[in-house]
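Quick one, tokens below:
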């Protein structure tokens, strides 16, 4: 499975971005995809998660109410829409996947330790004040 993130860039505080995580290279009936971010000098933080089968989602407290995770109709791309961006949202955002169902509650913990099976290279989000 290959994951490719896109959509990062420079945005002013209060603005919005839609990050994309495109998955390819495998056919599978279910998956769990999570977004993580890591700012310089800080530990990896789970941001959001979605499971394909039932659309269950997870949001960290830091983005709850400002982030929306969803997939396209083909369910091969997962998006993270973030609004009301803050300077503290600046980080490299990476998506990670399990090509089978895994609870988001597990994924967001495992992923902070790089415990998920597949990872993208990340996309940088910079928020100017």
């Amino acid at each position: 499975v290959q994951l490719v993130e896109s959509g990062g860039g420079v945005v002013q505080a209060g603005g919005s971005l839609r990050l994309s995580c495109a998955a390819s290279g495998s056919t599978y009936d279910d998956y769990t995809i999570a977004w993580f971010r890591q700012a310089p000098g800080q530990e990896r933080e789970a941001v959001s998660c979605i499971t394909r089968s039932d659309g269950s989602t997870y949001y960290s407290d830091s983005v709850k109410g400002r982030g929306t995770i969803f997939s396209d109709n083909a369910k091969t791309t997962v998006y993270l829409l973030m609004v009301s961006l803050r300077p503290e949202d600046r980080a490299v955002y990476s998506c990670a996947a399990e090509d089978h169902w895994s609870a988001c509650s597990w994924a967001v913990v495992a992923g902070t330790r790089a415990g998920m099976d597949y990872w993208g290279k990340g996309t940088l989000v910079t928020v100017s004040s």
